[in-house]
Each structure stands twice: as C-alpha cells, then as structure tokens.
Specification:
- The chain is of the alpha/beta class.
- It folds into two domains: 190 residues, P-loop containing nucleotide triphosphate hydrolases (Rossmann fold), CATH 3.40.50.300; 135 residues, Helicase, Ruva Protein, domain 3, CATH 1.10.8.60.
- 41% of the residues lie in helices and 9% in strands.
- The strands form two sheets. The chain has a five-stranded parallel beta sheet with strand order 2-3-6-1-7.
Length: 350
Amino acid sequence: MEDYATVMNLGPDQAERTFERIIGNSAALESVLEQVEQVAPTDSTVLIEGETGTGKELIAHAIHNASQRYGRAFIKLNCAAIPLDLLESELFGHEKGAFTGAIAQKIGRFEMADKGTLFLDEVGDIPPALQPKLLRVLQEQEFERLGSGRTHKVDVRLVAATNRNLVKMVARGQFRSDLYYRLDVFPILLPALRERREDIPALVTHFVKMFNRRMGKQVDSIPTETMCAFQWHSWPGNIRELQNLVERAMILSRDGILPNPLHKRRTAPIIVSLQQSQALPSSMTSEESDRALIMETLEQGGWVVGGPRGAAAKLGLKRTTLLAKMRRLGISRPIPQDGIDVIGIAREDV
C-alpha cells in the first residue's frame, strides 16, 4: 500500500482504504489506479471494461472508497443474474399489487443507493425495453416504482461494468447509443492477467496466505515449477481463475509445499529448474522473466527447439510461437568457437 500511496498522492490510511485487496505493482495496474484517483472525487459515471475475472468490482469499490461518498451505501447488482421480468423491479422497486406476486412494497437498488454509489455489473445484459428507463434515471436522477405514478428523486453515483463490446452491440441495435454515451463518460479498461504477469507472484502469495487462514493450513513453500507454471499460463479466466487454481493446489498440498495444479494441462508450460529453489524474482519485468525462462529451458535441453523433447514442447508452446518469441527477445543459439553448430539445432529453427 505504500507504493500506491506514493503513486496516487494519498495518505497511507486512505490508500489502505481505497485499494484493499488490489494486489500488484505492474505499470498496467498502476495506470488503472491513477485513473481511479482522477475520477473518484467527481460524481461522473464510470464504465469499467475488461474480460471476466479481471477485478471490475474491486475497482468499483476503490472508486467509491476514494470518493466523497465513502461511508455511504455501496449497492451492487449483477444485471445478468436477475431474470429479465424481475430486473426492472430490482432496479426501481415496486408497489404492493403492482404485478402478480407483488405482495408487499419493494425498494429498488437506485433508492437503496441514494447519496451513495450503485454498481451495475454486466450492464450490457440490460434488455432494450428497460434501457430508456435507465437512461432517464441517469439523466434526471428520478424514477417511478412499478405500479406507482409518484416520482422519486435520488442522488446516485453510477459505476457500470461489462465484459461485452458495447460499441458492437450499439452497431447491431442491441444497445441504445444514447445510453452507451451516457455510461461511457469515463471508461476504464482493466488489463487481462496475461498483460500483467509480473503481478502473478504477489497474487499467488496473497491467495496462499488467504487460504492458509481459511483452511487452517501452513503452506509456506512455492516451488519454482509451480510459480513458473502460474506465470506462463494463458489465464482465460484471469484473476478469478488464478484464485480457484491456488485453492485447488492448497487442497492438494502436503508438507507445506504448494503443488502445481496445472501439471496435467497441456496448455500449461512448465519449467523445472534443477539449480533454483525459489521462483523468479517478482521485480522482473514480463519480458525479463520470459527471456530467463526460455534461455533456461533451451540451455537445459541442448538448444533443441522442436520435437517432443524440444524447448517448445516443454514450454507448452508451438514451435513457431517459441521462435517468434526468441526473435522478439533477441535470443539466438550460441555459436561455438570451432564454428560447428550446436548439436540438436536445425538451421531453419533460428
């Protein structure tokens, strides 16, 4: 938290409050937090975009915690988790008898969030018929409950999130353009985990400590093989997938050692170091760690790139993908002083 306090010009207490549970210090993450600092003191609508599992709700909390509305209600609603015929009632509430089954008055999320912040997750799932009503409350800060003609005024700061491409949805007529522009006042794009790999060691360590407390375990050793597997995985499910796999590894752990839960996945590149007992330094950049791991694998395998025992197979990469990475990172095979090619390297490989 000291790093964030420095970058964000916040006091330690405010930084702790604002960025609780946000782990990492990569440039990509710090860029997001700088945007949080810029928009949080305003009442402007924020649209958080990013793949599933990237931590959109945590960023929404950070915006609320760093705003003048901190201490007021933070209300959240996952629009994709509510049946379409009930979503309007969840947002705006209803009066008794407004529809079959409405046996009592219900307060909606906008009313609950008055003077505070409302976080609408998966806002792209709001049906077209309901979008004009959402647009109205954003523009006018007023609405009516279902079954009532009485207008309610509210003071709500909206933070919305989506993993869908709203621009394409607007082009297809699935999302109102005027609502999109009203939501897109201040967009924040969250990086995928594969774009901030240098944060993975800190995240793994955080989740291990968390599950140690929950499970009553004492896992205190993370082997190089395990950490390297985590750092090289593609993470389609992002941080949520990482947390779930760490939990799986914790369940399987013995003797205080975290096993590699990706061991049997062909998509998970695994490098076993015979000389190291700790993971690569978390201070390494993504390119530095990539280069170190590729160099180590090539050297251990006699610089064989292709084939079932080649470096590409050990890293879980296609041969052409590895060669492209080697060119980008400036990795080439050493040429012996006698001018003879290193055994196991085909000339076309490099």
